[in-house]
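Chapter summary example.
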Amino acid sequence: MHTFFRLFLLTAAAALLLFVSCSKLDDFSDFDSVSGTAEYAIPLVNTSISLGDILGKYENSSLTIDPDGTLRFNYSGDVITQTSEFFFDAIEHTLAQFPIIPITSRRMSLPFSSPGGLALDRIDCKTGTFTYYVTNRHPESVNATITFPDVKKNGQPLRFQMTLPPYSGTGDAPFSTNIFSPASVEGYIIESDIDSVFIEYEAIRASGISDTLASVLVSIQNLTFSYAEGSLSNYQFAGNRDTIEIDFFDNWTRGDVYFEDPTVTFHIENSFGIPTRSLVRVFDIITVNGEVLPLQSPHITNGIDFPYPSINEVGQVKTRSFVFNKGNSNIDVVLGAGPVAVDYDISAATAPQSEGTRGFISEDGFYKVRVEVELPLYGRASGFVAQDTFDINLGDLNEVDFAEFKLFTKNELPLAVELQGYFLDENNQILDSLFQTQQLVVQGAPVNGQGISTGVSTKSTLIPFSEERLARIKSARRILVNTAFSTTNGGANSIKVSANQKIQVQLGAKLGKKR
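The structure predicted for these 515 residues follows.
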């Protein structure tokens, strides 16, 4: 359960829980006598604590405090990351499907293929080896050359030269191969239409005649890339789906809450040198009632442009934070409906305006998107009911025949709390209630026109237990607590809750024992 609600549940239920844990009731000799009879007064609790102290520990969210003291809960999803691996893999995969490539003409294109929507004209080789195997069936020797005119290093194309002896006409034809010492293509740059990377070979017989060879086989293995340039438009990245769990409403049963300025922020980092725009396939808020409410905004429909480095800024990371608020979306409506989770699927595509724009992707390139939901404690609540069950053991009350508890609260928070509790036996059957009807136990502090607390409110509550009622609850094993929260003025106006506001709780007991 969220710490914010547990604070008030525990405060309001203190009359029943704390005196049991703080006192042993089987030894009355240490108690002060009230009337000289078998009645004893016991101070149980006297504490004061701020919301900043209480809310600093919770599971699913982080807490920030504004300069004016306003508290904000922040719920973050996992970082959605897309690296350049997806991009280079698409090219490398095409060659991997052809471990051996027969060269059937003196000039032919190799089976490279760019990812759809990307027109590359430069790509840098990081690793890879090239192997050839050629045979000669001509009756005279042949000087052969294999050339990649578009694959260059220091301006020189990748080229292999060899001389094959004449073929005698019987037996195996003479061949040449570098299979035992493949050539490395590391550091070579392909500058061409990547879908049309050509290989050429030339065979000159000893008589000077240009001819063909009996067979030319090549193999390109373990090819990887480190950099690519070109016109990078109309390409969609793979999507990523995530869920942010919001525990603020974990114990909600009914009532309304409205956050004045909730936000959802996209934190974007990008080192791809491409104009890129978000694609939000899903962005739904799931409520406590099981409703699925979509976040609606022109920026969801049209996308958010990512910042990106220019062609002269390779290696730089550009950042942007885009905030959805009630001015550009329906976020106040959907987050005011009792959200328990945010379900989203976000990816990206190269933006339309990138068509014809020269961009780049490097091997260490990436984009990251982190989604953060922020709920400031600035808003209003009306009849917001939370429910929780606590284990109790009232065995120490066996020596007590009747009791009266007094709860005193001094509250700087502009929140009022009404309470009802039900004592349950081991079968979860109701034995008795805490009050005859739900009762106000914490009075909300007064506020000004800006919803800021201007003072304190006090409230005293007596909780008597007659002999008959006390006997009924001694076998209780749990207490079910219903607590209703409303902001000052019955939830009519928004209020601010700050970290330094405190609530003081004093609890005493008057215990009686028949003579």
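To summarize the output: Confidence is low (pLDDT under 50) at residues 1-36.
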